[in-house]
Design goal:
- This protein is an alpha+beta fold.
- The chain contains 1 helix and 6 strands.
- The protein has a single domain, classed as Nucleic acid-binding proteins (OB fold (Dihydrolipoamide Acetyltransferase, E2P)).
- Helices cover 18% and strands 46% of the residues.
- Strand 5 and strand 6 form a beta hairpin.
- The longest helix is centred in the last third of the chain and has 22 residues.
- The model has no long low-confidence stretch (mean pLDDT 91).
Amino acid sequence: MINLVVLEGLLARPAQDVELPSGSRLVSMEVTVRRDEGAAEAVPVAWFDAPAWATALDAGSQVVVLGRVRRRFFRVAGVTQSRTEVVAARVVRAAAPARVRSVLEEAQAVLAAASKRDAGTRSPY
């Protein structure tokens, strides 16, 4: 199975730095992704132990995100709720073409490895 996400979009709000009870840092972002047709979509992104520069990302910053999808469950006022978000492995500014290329090459390598691994187990139908 493959759980791989590549997003390119604009930050809807400034990145928020949160220190977790475990001592880890989390940078929370909302990436707005425009589609060719239809409304734009806001995608929540969680980046654990992000570098210090990540907190300087402001609303309107164009970024490329490489990560995976996760759904987490939590309780609020006695009610179980869930949130689907992207957990980022890498985030780069879209204005840095060499870094964007590196992210895309990493995604392509993950897909190629999965394809090679699953080649003998897939049904042609």
